[in-house]
Design goal:
With 333 residues, this protein is α/β, with parallel strands linked by helices. The chain is 40% helix and 22% strand.
Length: 333
């Protein structure tokens, strides 16, 4: 009899060990955070967007455009046999009342949910991650949301951060349904010029020699020339991007912003390590020069690229405050 008990015990243990770990689905993530998925078929392309759930159709829409990173919208981790779901966007959607819904459109090829420990951007991302595709993708999503999810639309807000700001500026020129634009920590001038400027700033700060800065800038100019000479290449460079992506951002965002007539809310951090505050001040100057009065220009003193202010060992996060002020601003414009 004791042998039977031993065999049964071994079977139980073996069965327990062989049980597969639960891997969350996109529906699990959407349910956790209160979102739903929209899907649009355009020829051979499928466009996905995620929309905050609502009980009654809202009249206002806020659309967030992500920055440069290849982060998915939703991901999960497995630890000690248990899975945890995460989102790669902030609390902004929680700060809106029921008259709003909130949308975020994943980058090409990165819709769904991914294992953090195994994630790498798919080929589709590198083929389609350029400004024109992203602008079209988001514009189509906005129109679908307006048609199917809004009642008597009164406000369509688009705000982008970093690379998303540049996309938003082009998008506002294309999509006339947009009523308010947020341009957050985006480059104002050509990327390659701003990379060169950072080298000069480091020289002034004593972080590198004058000659090294000059050599670095010559290298940046050679890099820019190589992009121009092969603008459609989807080969991945050492930054993790393609010539096609770099080339699509050749036109400086200030050119788009100066042709937009809807209200624009621009905000920058004075200690931004990715977007030089020095070029940001060109925006209000150029708007005044063109006698345009639709720009609201703000800075977050002492803040980095994500609006975090560091005071000694303490960090003060300003993003939520800036978002609340942004939404209040849209009520006044």
């Amino acid at each position: 009899m004791k042998y039977i008990y031993l065999i049964l015990s071994l079977l139980i243990v073996t069965t327990g060990m062989s049980q597969p770990v639960f891997k969350p689905t996109i529906d699990d993530a959407l349910n956790k955070y209160g979102f739903t998925e929209g899907k649009i078929i355009k020829g051979s392309d499928t466009i996905i967007y995620y929309l905050r759930k609502y009980k009654t159709k809202p009249s206002k829409l806020a659309v967030f455009i992500q920055g440069t990173d290849t982060n998915p919208i939703f991901s999960y981790k497995i630890k000690n046999g248990k899975s945890s779901i995460y989102r790669w966007f902030g609390n902004d959607y929680k700060l809106l009342d029921s008259t709003y819904t909130y949308a975020i459109i994943p980058k090409p090829g990165i819709d769904g949910i991914f294992n953090d420990n195994e994630f790498s951007a798919p080929n589709e991302y590198y083929k389609k991650n350029f400004r024109e595709y992203r602008v079209n993708q988001i514009s189509i999503s906005i129109e679908d949301i307006i048609k199917n999810h809004l009642k008597k639309p009164e406000k369509i807000i688009v705000y982008g951060h970093s690379e998303g700001a540049a996309i938003g500026a082009s998008l506002a020129n294309k999509n006339k349904s947009i009523t308010h634009l947020g341009f957050w920590s985006g480059n104002v001038l050509n990327n390659f010029y701003e990379f060169s400027l950072f080298n000069r700033i480091e020289t002034l700060q004593g972080k590198q020699s004058d000659s090294l800065a000059h050599d670095n800038i010559l290298g940046i100019l050679d890099w820019y020339k190589s992009v121009i000479n092969n603008p459609n290449s989807t080969e991945i460079d050492h930054f993790g991007f393609t010539n096609k992506r770099w080339f699509s951002y050749e036109k400086p965002p200030i050119d788009d912003l100066l042709t937009i007539d809807i209200p624009i809310y621009a905000v920058f951090g004075t200690k931004d390590e990715s977007t030089p505050i020095e070029t940001a001040y060109l925006l209000p100057i150029q708007f005044m020069q063109k006698r345009k009065e639709n720009l609201t220009f703000n800075v977050c003193i002492g803040c980095n690229h994500g609006y975090v202010e560091k005071i000694k060992e303490k960090e003060i996060k300003h993003w939520d405050r800036i978002f609340r002020e942004f939404i209040l601003w849209t009520n006044q414009k």
